[in-house]
């Protein structure tokens, strides 16, 4: 199974356009959005090309291909604009060998883990910091932020292709982080 991950769009139309272009080229089955889709949040500066309603208009035609979770900046008002559900605090994707636990990162995260089995993957956003690593018996994966990167990082997104989780730079597709998730 091939999946694409984007997090922390925060209403940026240029970032959304880039993500959708890469998704169309990727052959990924699902676009997994890890929250903070439309609103920039009170602690963040406005991202480049801030246009929440237009972001919703661009994402909505792909509603049947999007799996999303609610971020700390997402609200019921945002859901009114989007044609795919965003109010679940977490979702799960089951592969043949492991579970991917999807969450934004403000409720569950590396320091507050949900119940996971050995080999499972915690997939989260929220920090805007890319991560792909094994910690103990589980894997941690954060695709970073497509619109407001932090910690000196560039805007980024993630891919699961087979047993490899990778974080790529949004603009030039350089690999930022990767981990192999063998069962």
Overall description:
The longest helix has 14 residues, at 13-26. The protein contains three helices and eleven strands. Helix 1 runs parallel beside helix 2. It is α/β, with parallel strands linked by helices and 183 residues long. The strands form two sheets. It has a six-stranded mixed β-sheet, covered by helices on one side. The chain has a five-stranded mixed β-sheet with strand order 4-5-6-8-7, with no helix packed on it. The model has no long low-confidence stretch (mean pLDDT 96). The chain has helices at 13-26, 52-59, 76-81, and strands at 2-6, 30-33, 66-68, 90-94, 99-103, 121-123, 130-135, 138-143, 156-161, 164-169, 175-180.
Helix/strand layout:
Blueprint: E1 2-6, H1 13-26, E2 30-33, H2 52-59, E3 66-68, H3 76-81, E4 90-94, E5 99-103, E6 121-123, E7 130-135, E8 138-143, E9 156-161, E10 164-169, E11 175-180
Parallel strand pairs: 1-2, 2-3, 5-6, 6-8
Antiparallel strand pairs: 1-9, 4-5, 7-8, 9-10, 10-11
Helix pairs in contact: 1-2
Which regions have little confidence, pLDDT < 50, spanning 5+ residues?
none
Shape: globular
User: Mind summarizing the main beta sheet?
Assistant: 6 strands, mixed
| Mean pLDDT across all amino acids | 96
Distance between the termini: 15 Å
Strand percentage: 25-35%
Task: Tell me the Rg in angstroms.
Answer: 15 Å
Tell me the total number of β-strands. 11
Secondary-structure-based class equals alpha/beta
Strand order of the largest sheet: 3-2-1-9-10-11
Tally of alpha and pi helices = 3
| The CATH class | Alpha Beta
What's the order of the H and E elements? EHEHEHEEEEEEEE
Tally of distinct domains: 1
Mind telling me the CATH superfamily name?
A: Metallo-dependent phosphatases
Keywords: Hydrolase, Metal-binding
Family: Belongs to the metallophosphoesterase superfamily. YfcE family.
Organism: Pseudocitrobacter corydidari
Domain Calcineurin-like phosphoesterase: 1-162
């Amino acid at each position: 199974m091939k999946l694409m991950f984007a997090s922390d769009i925060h209403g940026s139309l240029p970032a959304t356009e880039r993500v959708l272009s890469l998704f169309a080229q990727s052959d990924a089955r699902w676009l997994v959005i890890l929250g903070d889709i439309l609103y920039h949040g009170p602690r963040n500066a406005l991202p480049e090309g801030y246009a929440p309603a237009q972001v919703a208009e661009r994402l909505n035609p792909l509603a049947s291909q999007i799996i999303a979770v609610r971020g700390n900046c997402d609200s019921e008002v945002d859901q009114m604009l989007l044609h795919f559900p965003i109010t679940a605090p977490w979702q799960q994707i089951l592969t043949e060998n492991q579970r991917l636990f999807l969450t934004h990162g403000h409720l569950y995260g590396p320091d507050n883990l949900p119940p996971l089995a050995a080999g499972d993957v915690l997939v989260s956003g929220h920090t805007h910091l890319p991560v792909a690593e094994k910690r103990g018996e589980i894997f941690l994966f954060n695709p970073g932020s497509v619109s407001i990167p932090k910690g000196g990082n560039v805007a980024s997104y993630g891919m699961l292709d087979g047993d490899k989780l990778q974080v790529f730079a949004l603009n030039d597709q350089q690999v930022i982080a990767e981990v192999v998730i063998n069962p």
